[in-house]
Design brief:
Blueprint (H helix, E strand, L loop, with lengths): L3 E2 L7 E2 H14 L4 H10 L7 H9 L4 H14 L9 H13 L4 H10 L7
Helix pairs in contact: 1-2, 1-3, 4-6
């Protein structure tokens, strides 16, 4: 099977480029690796292009650091004037899990924002 597919609206894209565009799109929105992999798979892009796409998009940042920063940016969206109550913590953790972030990434994200958390 050829690596080229025709995008009839714009121009031909190869699978590597499509994977990279998909990773970039979802990473910019704060999604984790497992959710992004789901989106790539949903688009029918062969698995052999996934790793390279993550490496190119995350650039010099190590993938874990990039994912932790994406998760931490979600935490920043919450207004926490009274600190981190159990209910707010549950909501944030649930939102991060829905976005495909792992337990370790979530803990590192909270710690990077000065919160101690155990799960």
């Amino acid at each position: 099977m050829s690596a080229k597919r025709l995008n009839t609206e714009f121009y031909p894209l190869d699978d590597a480029e499509r994977a990279e565009n998909t990773v970039r799109f979802w990473r910019e929105r704060g999604y984790g690796r497992s959710r992004i992999e789901f989106e790539i798979q949903k688009r029918g892009i062969p698995r052999e292009y996934w790793g390279g796409a993550f490496e190119r998009v995350d650039g010099v940042l190590h993938e874990e650091a990039a994912e932790t920063e994406a998760a931490a940016s979600i935490i920043d969206n919450y207004d926490l004037p009274r600190g981190l109550t159990p209910g707010i913590r549950r909501r944030i953790v649930s939102a991060l899990k829905r976005r495909g972030h792992s337990r370790d990434v979530i803990i590192r994200a909270f710690m990077s924002r000065g919160f101690e958390i155990s799960m």
